[in-house]
Amino acid sequence: MEAGSFAFAGAGTIWIYAPSYAAQPITARRLAVLHEYFHTVQAYLSKQRSGRAPLWIIEGSAKYVEERIGADRGYSNFNNRREDQILRSKTLGPLASYETDGGVPSRGGHGEAYTVGFVASDYLVQAKGADTLKREFWVALGSAPDWHKAFSTAFGYSPEDFYAAFESYRSTL
Protein backbone atom coordinates (compact mmCIF):
# COMPACT_ATOMS: atom_id res chain seq x y z
CA MET A 1 0.00 0.00 0.00
CA GLU A 2 1.03 3.58 -0.47
CA ALA A 3 2.71 5.93 1.98
CA GLY A 4 0.22 7.32 4.45
CA SER A 5 -1.66 4.03 4.55
CA PHE A 6 -2.70 2.33 7.71
CA ALA A 7 -4.13 -1.12 8.17
CA PHE A 8 -5.10 -3.12 11.21
CA ALA A 9 -6.27 -6.68 11.62
CA GLY A 10 -7.33 -8.31 14.83
CA ALA A 11 -9.80 -10.80 16.15
CA GLY A 12 -12.19 -10.99 13.23
CA THR A 13 -11.61 -7.35 12.22
CA ILE A 14 -9.85 -5.82 9.23
CA TRP A 15 -9.58 -2.06 8.97
CA ILE A 16 -7.77 -0.41 6.05
CA TYR A 17 -7.35 3.32 5.57
CA ALA A 18 -5.45 5.10 2.84
CA PRO A 19 -6.24 8.54 1.46
CA SER A 20 -6.51 7.16 -2.06
CA TYR A 21 -7.15 3.46 -1.37
CA ALA A 22 -10.11 3.35 -3.77
CA ALA A 23 -7.94 4.84 -6.53
CA GLN A 24 -5.36 2.06 -6.26
CA PRO A 25 -5.50 -0.78 -8.78
CA ILE A 26 -7.89 -3.51 -7.71
CA THR A 27 -5.02 -6.01 -7.51
CA ALA A 28 -3.16 -3.83 -4.98
CA ARG A 29 -6.30 -3.51 -2.87
CA ARG A 30 -6.90 -7.25 -2.99
CA LEU A 31 -3.31 -7.97 -1.94
CA ALA A 32 -3.71 -5.60 1.03
CA VAL A 33 -6.88 -7.43 2.08
CA LEU A 34 -5.15 -10.83 1.76
CA HIS A 35 -2.31 -9.57 3.95
CA GLU A 36 -4.65 -8.27 6.63
CA TYR A 37 -6.85 -11.35 6.41
CA PHE A 38 -3.86 -13.55 7.21
CA HIS A 39 -3.29 -11.48 10.36
CA THR A 40 -6.81 -12.47 11.47
CA VAL A 41 -5.89 -16.11 10.79
CA GLN A 42 -2.71 -15.70 12.87
CA ALA A 43 -4.76 -14.23 15.74
CA TYR A 44 -7.41 -16.95 15.55
CA LEU A 45 -5.04 -19.91 15.35
CA SER A 46 -2.81 -18.56 18.13
CA LYS A 47 -5.76 -17.82 20.43
CA GLN A 48 -5.02 -14.08 20.20
CA ARG A 49 -1.31 -14.59 21.03
CA SER A 50 0.09 -13.76 17.58
CA GLY A 51 1.51 -10.47 18.91
CA ARG A 52 3.96 -12.49 21.00
CA ALA A 53 5.75 -13.69 17.86
CA PRO A 54 8.65 -11.74 16.35
CA LEU A 55 7.69 -8.96 13.97
CA TRP A 56 9.57 -10.61 11.09
CA ILE A 57 7.38 -13.74 11.20
CA ILE A 58 4.14 -11.83 11.83
CA GLU A 59 4.63 -9.50 8.87
CA GLY A 60 6.89 -11.70 6.75
CA SER A 61 4.49 -14.64 6.75
CA ALA A 62 1.54 -12.31 6.02
CA LYS A 63 3.52 -10.82 3.10
CA TYR A 64 4.42 -14.33 1.90
CA VAL A 65 0.81 -15.56 2.06
CA GLU A 66 -0.43 -12.34 0.43
CA GLU A 67 1.93 -12.84 -2.52
CA ARG A 68 1.41 -16.61 -2.81
CA ILE A 69 -2.40 -16.47 -2.74
CA GLY A 70 -2.39 -13.29 -4.81
CA ALA A 71 -0.34 -15.02 -7.50
CA ASP A 72 -2.70 -18.01 -7.44
CA ARG A 73 -5.53 -15.61 -8.22
CA GLY A 74 -3.66 -13.62 -10.87
CA TYR A 75 -3.04 -10.48 -8.76
CA SER A 76 0.76 -10.70 -8.95
CA ASN A 77 3.67 -12.79 -10.18
CA PHE A 78 5.04 -14.65 -7.16
CA ASN A 79 8.45 -15.40 -8.67
CA ASN A 80 9.00 -11.75 -9.61
CA ARG A 81 7.89 -10.59 -6.16
CA ARG A 82 10.12 -13.20 -4.51
CA GLU A 83 13.15 -12.02 -6.50
CA ASP A 84 12.34 -8.41 -5.59
CA GLN A 85 12.16 -9.27 -1.88
CA ILE A 86 15.46 -11.19 -2.06
CA LEU A 87 17.15 -8.26 -3.82
CA ARG A 88 15.79 -5.74 -1.32
CA SER A 89 16.83 -7.94 1.63
CA LYS A 90 20.50 -7.99 0.60
CA THR A 91 21.13 -4.53 2.05
CA LEU A 92 19.26 -5.19 5.29
CA GLY A 93 20.47 -6.47 8.64
CA PRO A 94 20.25 -9.99 10.01
CA LEU A 95 16.83 -11.51 10.54
CA ALA A 96 17.24 -11.59 14.34
CA SER A 97 17.46 -7.78 14.35
CA TYR A 98 13.84 -7.59 13.17
CA GLU A 99 12.17 -9.33 16.08
CA THR A 100 10.73 -5.98 17.21
CA ASP A 101 12.08 -3.43 14.71
CA GLY A 102 11.58 -2.82 10.99
CA GLY A 103 7.88 -2.22 10.82
CA VAL A 104 6.10 0.43 8.80
CA PRO A 105 7.20 4.11 8.90
CA SER A 106 4.51 4.97 11.45
CA ARG A 107 6.23 2.50 13.77
CA GLY A 108 9.77 3.71 13.10
CA GLY A 109 10.81 1.43 10.26
CA HIS A 110 10.72 1.15 6.50
CA GLY A 111 9.24 -2.30 6.18
CA GLU A 112 12.48 -4.18 6.72
CA ALA A 113 10.77 -6.87 8.82
CA TYR A 114 8.30 -7.47 5.98
CA THR A 115 11.10 -7.87 3.43
CA VAL A 116 13.54 -10.07 5.38
CA GLY A 117 10.61 -11.86 6.98
CA PHE A 118 9.21 -12.70 3.54
CA VAL A 119 12.54 -14.25 2.52
CA ALA A 120 12.71 -16.16 5.82
CA SER A 121 9.13 -17.34 5.34
CA ASP A 122 9.96 -18.55 1.85
CA TYR A 123 12.95 -20.42 3.28
CA LEU A 124 10.78 -22.02 5.97
CA VAL A 125 8.21 -23.11 3.38
CA GLN A 126 10.93 -24.67 1.25
CA ALA A 127 12.38 -26.48 4.27
CA LYS A 128 9.26 -27.41 6.24
CA GLY A 129 6.24 -26.91 3.98
CA ALA A 130 3.57 -24.26 3.69
CA ASP A 131 1.26 -25.70 6.36
CA THR A 132 3.99 -25.36 8.98
CA LEU A 133 4.25 -21.62 8.32
CA LYS A 134 0.59 -20.94 7.65
CA ARG A 135 -0.89 -23.07 10.42
CA GLU A 136 1.32 -25.16 12.70
CA PHE A 137 3.44 -22.35 14.14
CA TRP A 138 0.41 -20.23 14.99
CA VAL A 139 -1.42 -23.15 16.61
CA ALA A 140 1.70 -24.00 18.65
CA LEU A 141 1.96 -20.35 19.72
CA GLY A 142 -1.53 -20.59 21.19
CA SER A 143 -0.40 -23.08 23.83
CA ALA A 144 3.37 -22.61 24.12
CA PRO A 145 4.89 -20.63 27.00
CA ASP A 146 6.69 -18.40 24.48
CA TRP A 147 7.34 -18.04 20.76
CA HIS A 148 10.72 -19.80 21.02
CA LYS A 149 9.04 -23.01 22.18
CA ALA A 150 6.30 -22.66 19.54
CA PHE A 151 8.96 -22.18 16.85
CA SER A 152 10.89 -25.26 17.97
CA THR A 153 7.68 -27.31 18.11
CA ALA A 154 6.52 -26.26 14.65
CA PHE A 155 9.78 -26.08 12.74
CA GLY A 156 11.97 -28.59 14.56
CA TYR A 157 14.82 -26.34 15.58
CA SER A 158 15.47 -23.44 17.92
CA PRO A 159 15.17 -19.86 16.68
CA GLU A 160 18.91 -19.44 17.27
CA ASP A 161 19.73 -22.44 15.07
CA PHE A 162 17.25 -21.20 12.48
CA TYR A 163 18.81 -17.73 12.45
CA ALA A 164 22.24 -19.25 11.77
CA ALA A 165 20.93 -21.55 9.03
CA PHE A 166 18.90 -18.75 7.44
CA GLU A 167 21.81 -16.29 7.37
CA SER A 168 24.00 -18.97 5.79
CA TYR A 169 21.28 -19.58 3.15
CA ARG A 170 20.77 -15.86 2.67
CA SER A 171 24.45 -15.35 1.89
CA THR A 172 24.03 -17.68 -1.13
CA LEU A 173 21.19 -15.67 -2.67
- Gyration radius, rounded: 15 Å
Biggest sheet: strand arrangement: 1-2
Task: Count every helix, treating DSSP H or I runs of 4 or more residues as helices.
Answer: 7
Number of individual domains: 1
Highest-level CATH class: Mainly Alpha
Give a quick account of the main beta sheet: strands, pairing sense, barrel closure: 2 strands, antiparallel
Strand residue content: 5-15%
Q: How many E-type strands?
A: 2
Structural class: mainly alpha
Chain-wise SSE layout:
Layout: E1 6-10, E2 13-17, H1 26-45, H2 55-72, H3 78-89, H4 112-128, H5 130-141, H6 147-155, H7 159-170
Antiparallel strand pairs: 1-2
Helix pairs in contact: 1-2, 1-5, 2-4, 3-4, 4-5, 5-6
Question: Which key phrases capture this entry?
Answer:
6% strand, 173 residues, two-stranded antiparallel sheet, 2 strands, 7 helices, mainly alpha, Neutral Protease, domain 2
Structure description:
This protein is mostly helical. The chain has one domain: Orthogonal Bundle (Neutral Protease, domain 2). Helix content is 58%, strand content 6%. The protein has seven helices and two strands; from the N terminus they run ββααααααα. The chain has a two-stranded antiparallel ribbon. β1 and β2 form a beta hairpin. α2 crosses α4 and α3 crosses α4.
Describe this structure in a few short sentences:
It is built from seven helices and two strands, in the order E-E-H-H-H-H-H-H-H. It is mainly alpha-helical and about 170 residues long. The chain has one domain: Neutral Protease, domain 2 (Orthogonal Bundle), CATH 1.10.390.
